[in-house]
Design brief:
Number of helices: 3
Largest sheet: 10 strands, mixed
Oligomer: single chain
Number of strands: 10
Shape: globular
Helix content: 10-25%
Radius of gyration: 19 Å
Structural class: alpha+beta
């Protein structure tokens, strides 16, 4: 009897792991299925502007221009990344001078296939050699435009930013439909 219970639990555990890993691999592969990524030379107009969100009780301001994304937590120095046109390069073979010059650069592409029912702009650090990068999409929630950023193999939503501080406060912590969360 104990052996049957053990094998039942072991089978259930293995099936659960297979299902979870398959789901994560499918999400990670969704970006890679874009055989010819469309590298961007400017960020989409619908993403541009100033956006507000809360991380816990801390206000986060995100400013998106045609060529940059700047994120600033209320009590910290702003972190600005600059979009560069993608050229084939090897971050592991950069000189110290190149590393310093490209420290805040990123490149971006527009996914042609939907992930979690949304089309995403995928950004990746110029010197980044591992990880999934960062994803951005603009959607609507209760009539308001929302900028969502996500990351990881599962394209998990990190935050939802709104066009005003008041909306950010009103929707603080909300989990929007169709997005995947950790």
């Amino acid at each position: 009897m104990k052996m049957n219970k053990f094998w039942s639990l072991a089978t259930l555990f293995i099936a659960t792991v297979v299902i979870i890993v398959s789901g994560v691999n499918a999400s990670a592969a969704a970006h890679k299925q874009n055989a010819q990524p469309k590298y961007l030379t400017s960020l989409p107009a619908n993403m541009r502007g100033t956006w507000y969100a809360y991380d816990g009780n801390q206000l986060v301001t995100t400013k998106v221009t045609a060529k940059s994304i700047t994120v600033q937590y209320a009590s910290e120095k702003a972190n600005k990344g600059t979009l560069r046109k993608y050229v084939d390069h090897n971050p592991l073979k950069m000189s110290k001078k190149e590393i310093k010059r490209t420290a805040n650069w990123f490149f971006a592409s527009q996914d042609t296939k939907k992930i979690h029912d949304y089309k995403w702009v995928w950004t990746y650090g110029w010197q980044q050699t591992a990880g999934a990068g960062e994803y951005y999409t603009v959607s609507k929630y209760q009539g308001h435009r929302v900028l969502t950023d996500a990351d990881g193999a599962g394209v998990w939503a990190n935050s939802h930013s709104f066009k005003t501080k008041q909306l950010a406060a009103k929707y603080k912590g909300v989990k929007l439909p169709k997005f995947s969360y950790r």
